[in-house]
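Margin note: ligand = NAP.
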Amino acid sequence: MNGTRQHVLILGGTTEGRGLAEALAGDPAAWRVTSSLAGRVAAPRLPPGDVRTGGFGGTEGLARWLREHAVDALVDATHPFAGTMSAHAAAAAAAAGVPLLGLRRPGWTPVPGDRWHPVDSAAGAAALLPALGGRVFLTTGRTDLAAFAGDAARWFLVRSVDPPEPPYPPRTEVVLDRGPFTYDGERALMTRHRVDVLVTKDSGGAATAPKLAVARDLGLPVVVVRRPPAPPGVPAVPDVAGALEWLRGGDQAG
Ligand code: NAP
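Resulting structure:
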């Protein structure tokens, strides 16, 4: 992009979204940056620049926001599992004629020694658990707990940033924490609670990956919830460097 200061709206709530806001804030003459957060986390880590919080009111609300705030480029840096927001971003960007880029960290890949069981949903994960274990480390986030709520036969260690709200399984212990996590910390947690199966989304990224290495080393099965499909036709990059290149390159027509 050339000439005047460009307004970039980042749909965030992720490490990548914050990282991009930090990078753009370093050049305030070139970029005006607004980050958008859903407002789910009580005390979010705030990025530099302007921050707005809460839903836009669907596709039309986002398209209106893009026009009213003269947004030059939209970056969808939401979590890979925020499929609704990504779909809204694609439709709204098309409606408002604003270039859109997906900034999506790559998913994880199994390595030798992993005992992964891929499933398509939290419900699929819940259905698989009886065959795999009785003491579950459930790291899918508090919004997916309902799928496991009917399981009174297993004990669950639930980790989330904010306290979960019912419904969740009757035999649940909650640990409030947020990444990045370490191998030693994850190993101590899983060993202390005698966890025998791990449930995770394929979130990707380094911050929450150590639990996978611990599960491998302890020989534990891991139920991995696959990502929802990304919106078709939206260019995407795996990291902040790629997003900066796209923004600077002015090739947003693609
Ligand atoms: P979602 O199901 O895809 O989105 C549901 C609705 O929440 C959207 O339609 C939109 O409301 C609002 N919304 C979502 N992200 C928003 C954002 N960045 N700014 C403003 N409004 C937003 O989203 P989700 O899975 O609940 O995720 C919510 C937020 O948490 C996202 O920012 C995401 O990056 C972050 N997050 C999600 C996960 C996960 O596992 N899903 C994990 C870590 C972080 P309107 O239709 O009213 O605009």
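DSSP finds seven helices and twelve strands in the chain.
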